[in-house]
Design goal:
Elements: H1 14-17, H2 30-37, H3 47-51, H4 58-66, H5 70-80, H6 84-90, H7 94-98, H8 110-120, E1 135-139, H9 143-154, E2 158-162, H10 171-174, H11 183-196, E3 199-201, H12 212-217, E4 222-225, E5 231-232, H13 248-256, E6 266-270, H14 274-285, E7 289-293, H15 305-314, E8 317-319, E9 322-329, E10 335-348, E11 354-358, E12 364-367, E13 370-373, E14 377-378, E15 412-414, H16 417-420, H17 425-443, H18 445-451
Parallel strand pairs: 1-2, 1-4, 2-3, 4-15, 6-7, 6-13, 7-8
Antiparallel strand pairs: 5-14, 9-10, 10-11, 10-12
Helix pairs in contact: 2-4, 2-8, 4-5, 4-8, 5-8, 6-8, 9-17, 13-14, 14-15, 17-18
The chain binds flavin-adenine dinucleotide (FAD).
Length: 468
């Protein structure tokens, strides 16, 4: 017998959705969450857990929801994720892609169940160990930095997080629009870290207000760099200097912090990742026409599938298999058109995705008032000095030891987008757990050794006692 259909979230009307920066859906009720959890097959070897970079015990919390124990479902999530409520909204849910039900039917709505666990479960602040002497400076209050802060403060280390912004959350507050992630959701998670003893220093920028040496002189025993990757990559085509070629990061940050954003009527966005989709959907909400130009197909697009679907429903014009070749301007040196060429897919490239190949003679023009490149980003590391001793990779990301997260400078660790390049929240969290463990090993090697030594099981079990 086929399983019951997936329980669908309820949405506000499409017309209203297109005009509001409020969250457009309501999440599950308790009853709906229990019903959806009831579809889970509780596999013996759950592929969903392996598919999650942070190995969240999905099966266990889905089971807790099925039993109506939302407190336990929240607790299980919070053990691995310092910001479970945010992930209940924006996680790309690699777990759902591997859900066994998904082979023939719709997979379990795992992300929605995580959201329900956080909506209805009691938030219990994790216990922290007694304060130690060692102090750790964390630069960047995004998912990576907050994860390291969480893991270290739990172990008793004194943690100070520095960020150039006036608030914590990184891209979750300065990039992802409010209609996908309401700000009060993240605030609750950050507040919990404050309660646990994490200190925050806002409006402090490494490379401007201080540098790595300053932190060492100030007596920090280890430093963590989690500064993300928000420097837009250039398209490397003619016309990028024109007025009206705008920065995706700057527009998203202006929208996120509710600063005035003056967008023209017709916007062309290059790329089809989360950044591109978020800008396109925001522009629609401001009453603008937004067109996405993407050189591959929907199948290869890096944005979350449901975001692409929602963008399409809201009226974003997504042109697949199209690449810009030149940005054309008017007499005022302002963008007026993008000349594009149609593509077809060839053999797979290094990323495993089929390489787009231009179709000769298929050039055409898209009239536009603004062009926003959103093809990729890299970390902003121009502040690094040669004698800082931080090696970079050929992708201009920070090189780190794969097992400890330590950079080429002893005592300086890194994780998240500044190491991985643009990735996802859950991947950054997973890597940051590893780096926090690396910092712990660096600062307290004997204790770390003890914690990681698996005591040998005696040959006979249970071992013999004197009474035997
Ligand atoms: C628009 C957009 C939408 C996205 N959508 C999704 C999604 O739906 N799902 C998903 O999983 N992922 C999504 N991502 C990716 C995800 O947000 C990132 O992978 C993740 O936030 C990276 O975490 P991080 O901690 O490494 O860096 P960030 O979140 O970028 O945080 C870095 C922090 O470092 C600070 N910083 C930078 N330079 C300095 C400096 N010199 N001094 C002090 N502080 C500094 C920044 O202010 C920032 O707070 C999206 C990204 C963007 C841009």
């Amino acid at each position: 017998m086929p399983p019951p259909p997936r329980v669908k979230r309820k949405y506000i009307s499409l017309e209203e959705r297109k005009t509001t920066f409020r969250e457009p859906d309501f999440g599950y009720t308790r009853e709906e969450a229990i019903e959806e959890a009831g579809r889970c097959l509780q596999c013996k070897k759950p592929a969903c857990v392996n598919a999650c970079p942070a190995h969240v015990p999905v099966k266990d919390y889905v089971n807790a929801i099925l039993e109506g124990d939302f407190d336990e479902a929240y607790r299980i999530n919070r053990c691995t994720l310092p910001m479970p409520s945010s992930l209940g909204r924006v996680c790309p849910a690699f777990c759902e892609q591997k859900c066994i039900l998904g082979k023939k039917f719709e997979p379990i709505a795992i992300r929605d169940l995580k959201r329900a666990a956080c909506d209805y479960g009691k938030r219990v602040t994790p216990a922290v160990a007694p304060k130690r002497e060692e102090r750790v400076a964390i630069i960047g209050a995004g998912p990576a930095g907050l994860t390291v802060a969480n893991d270290l403060v739990i172990r008793g280390y004194q943690v100070t997080v520095y960020d150039r912004l006036e608030t914590a959350g990184g891209t979750l507050v300065a990039g992802i629009p409010t209609f996908r992630l309401p700000r009060e959701i993240l605030k609750q998670d950050v507040h919990m870290l404050e309660e646990m003893g994490v200190e925050f220093q806002f409006n402090e920028s490494i490379g401007k207000d201080f540098d790595l040496d300053t932190l060492t002189y100030q007596g920090y025993d280890a430093i963590f760099l989690g500064i993300g990757a928000m420097d837009p990559k250039r398209l490397n085509i003619t016309g990028e200097h024109l007025k009206g070629v705008a920065s995706a990061a700057a527009i998203l940050a202006d929208l996120a912090f509710q600063r005035d954003v003056d967008l023209p009527d017709r916007i062309s966005i290059i790329g089809c990742g989360n950044v591109a989709i978020d800008i396109a959907r925001s522009a629609i909400r401001l009453g603008k026409e937004s067109t996405i130009l993407y050189r591959r197909t929907l199948k290869e697009a890096p944005a979350n599938d449901d975001e692409i679907e929602e963008a399409f429903e809201e009226g974003v014009d997504i042109k697949y298999l199209v690449a810009p070749i030149v940005i054309l301007g008017n007499e005022d040196e302002h963008v007026s058109e993008v000349e594009c060429i149609r593509m077809e897919l060839g053999e797979p490239d290094d990323s495993g995705r089929r390489r787009p190949v231009p179709i000769p003679g298929s050039e055409f023009k898209v009239p536009t008032d603004m062009v926003i490149p959103a093809v990729s980003q890299s970390p902003q590391l121009e502040w690094l000095k040669l004698d800082d001793g931080i090696e970079l990779t050929r992708w201009s990301t920070i090189w780190t030891n794969e097992e400890t997260g330590e950079s080429s400078r002893e005592g300086v660790f890194a994780a998240g987008d500044d190491v991985l390049g643009p990735s996802t929240v859950v991947e950054c969290i997973a890597q940051a757990h590893m780096a926090a463990d690396g910092i712990h090993k660096h600062l307290s090697p004997e204790e770390w050794e003890k914690e990681h030594t698996i005591e040998e099981t005696p040959e006979e079990w249970p071992p013999k006692t004197e009474d035997d």
